[in-house]
Amino acid sequence: MRKKYVILAAVIFLISAVLIGCSDEEQPEGTLLISYLDKEQTKTVRMDYEPNADLGDTELLVQELLNVLSTDSGDVDYVKPIPEGVKVLKTTLKDDGDLKVYFNDAYHTMDAVQEILCRLALVQTLTQVEGVDCLEFFVEDEPLLDTRGNEVGEMTTDDFVVNPGEQINSIQHATLDLYFSNPSGDGLVLETQRVYYNSNVSLEKLVIEHLLAGPKTSDAIASIPSETALVNVSVADRICYVSLDDGFRTQNYNVQEAIVIYSLVDSLTALPHIDKVQISVNGDTSGVYRESFLLSTIYEEDLSYVRLADSSRTVIVNDIKEENKHPLD
Questions:
Q1: What's the confidence (pLDDT) of residue 273?
Q2: Is residue 2 in a domain?
Q3: Residue span of the structural domain in which 48 resides
Q4: 151-206, pLDDT tens digit by residue?
Q5: Mean pLDDT across 287-315
Q6: What pLDDT was estimated at residue 5?
Q7: For the whole model, what pTM was predicted?
Q8: Are residues 45 and 110 both part of a single domain?
Q9: Do 182 and 95 have their domain in common?
Q10: Residues 217-260: tens digit of each pLDDT
């Protein structure tokens, strides 16, 4: 039985981030689709490619496509998914259609999002080849592991969550558990909001946008500095990577630093596809937030800061306040 690691994402960078930039027009005969990264390296984009190798010559075609995926496209809008320094050492194809791709150790220099998109581009491109049903990834001779130490295993395009075209621009609704600061700035207050949103927007982005907008109830205040803007958010291997702009460094000493950090962490890990959160400033994870919170740390949920303002919790439904008389556990 195949061992597959299903990547949950965007609802979020990888619902929004891996939307495939190609049309539904009929593909020209004798061509394949090559998956590149867009210039922001947030999703895959595909373009027609006419191979030199015969479409029935599996081995030659695989090698040709890997060379293409490692070569600059010549167009600034199309970035090669296998970056400079990362080399394919060898490939082996089993009779059951499992293509094993072996990379050099430089594979580990890619950041998490770039690595996920590299895998997606290879799977999308190479599974078009006759006789290739799935891919397995190796670094040197060791199976590729995810961030939890599990083997990634065999992958097909079904292992990547992508918004179907018919869902684009549709309106969906969600219930978000958002943690804001209490008025004294030393604890978190849970506010549950029921929101309607465009399906192109990932849930993690939705969470951060609502945190930045501030609470809708009087027993809470905004936890994140008001000057902050979201640069990017993505999810890979159940870790949410949040990049905020320089406004995040603005000092608001009315709210303790732990409350700022765990407002983000606890709100995002309330989503079922996120276990951990890393926060950066313009993508930079060096340095410390205020005095003691390293940006390089990947944070897990910590609900010890949650305070209950009164005997009920406030629920927002379509921006109308309703009282839920069940106390917060």
A1: 93
A2: no
A3: 19-160
A4: 888 988 876 644 444 333 455 778 899 999 999 999 999 999 878 676 678 899 99
A5: 79
A6: 36
A7: 0.50
A8: yes
A9: no
A10: 888 999 998 889 999 998 988 999 999 999 998 877 789 999 99
Q: Are residues 209 and 131 in the same domain?
A: no
Q: Are 238 and 272 in contact (CB under 8 A)?
A: no
Same domain, 180 and 120: no
Give a yes or no: residue 183 inside a domain: yes
Look at residues 13, 69, 6, 30 and name the one whose alpha carbon lies nearest to residue 233: 13
H or E segment at 232? strand 230-236
Q: Do 315 and 177 share a structural domain?
A: yes
Tokens for 94, please give them.
């089993």
CB-side neighbour CA atoms (13 Å) of 152: 25
Mean pLDDT of the chain: 81
Q: Are residues 138 and 232 in the same domain?
A: no
Which of 138, 160, 182 is where one domain is finished? 160
Euclidean distance between CA atoms 229 and 34, whole angstroms: 34
Quote the crossing angle between the two packed helices 58-69 and 112-126, to the nearest 10°.
150
- Sequence length of the chain is 329
Contact 261, 267 (CB under 8 A): no
Q: Is residue 65 a contact partner of residue 51, using CB atoms and an 8 Å limit? A: yes
